[in-house]
Amino acid sequence: MAADSVLSANSDLSAAKWIHELLVLAGCDVNFGNSETEIGVISSVFVYGTLKRGECRGAMWPVEPLGVSAVFTHGTLFDRHDYPAMTSGTDDVVGEKWDFRPEQMQRVLEVLDAIEGANQLGVPDLYRRVVVTTWDICELGASGHRVDAETARKSYTYHYASDPEDDGFTRILPEQAVEGRVRPCVQWPTQSRH
């Protein structure tokens, strides 16, 4: 595809994004480290609450994923009667990683931002979209290791935009409930809600 046809097809793109798309078409894997280009690089979303399969918003995804896998990330998880909240932290938070094709990510993020109350013009954020590292939940081998560095992947997720405890959330404390885990973990819904 010629550069002029890429430019005309993407005339609304910023210069950086246009250059990024041109390099991608040429077979280069680049990331300029800004939100415009990250959408083409990060193609998964980590969910820990109502967007998981079987939960009340699990059918609200705008496109079918390539796959869904059980993973964990680091954070602090909170519970309330209606939905969870997560902030940065050091607990192992268990959830699902939804993988998509890179060209689907802009639509996926637009829909999830609306669901999560993030990046909506003129409205304070309920959640903020952030990038986290996720790891596959691996079976314990003879070595007893729980983290396989090769399974580390960057994913988008949503952190609560204010202090969850100010809005009636209660912290979920780590428990040894997930089979095959060396370290305690947290997940929602909690065992008491099942």
Which residue ranges are poorly predicted, with pLDDT under 50 across at least 5 consecutive positions? 1-20, 26-37, 140-145
Task: Compute the CA-based radius of gyration.
Answer: 18 Å
Total beta strand runs: 7
CATH topology grouping of the largest domain? Hypothetical upf0131 protein ytfp
Explain this structure.
The protein has 194 residues and is of the alpha+beta class. The chain has 2 domains: 1-41, no CATH class; 43-193, Roll (Hypothetical upf0131 protein ytfp), CATH 3.10.490. The protein contains 4 helices and 7 strands. Strands 1, 2, 3, 4, 5, 6 and 7 form a 7-stranded mixed sheet that branches. A hairpin with a 5-residue loop joins strand 2 and strand 3 (85-99). The longest helix has 12 residues, at 105-116. It is globular and about 35 Å long. The N and C termini lie far apart (53 Å).
Name a few traits of the molecule.
194 residues; alpha+beta; Hypothetical upf0131 protein ytfp; 2 domains; 7-stranded mixed sheet; 4 helices; 7 strands; disordered N terminus
Tell me the layout of helices and strands.
Blueprint: H1 3-9, H2 15-25, H3 35-41, E1 44-47, E2 67-79, E3 85-99, H4 105-116, E4 127-136, E5 153-160, E6 170-171, E7 185-186
Summarize this structure briefly.
With 194 residues, the chain is an alpha+beta fold. The protein is 19% helix and 28% strand.
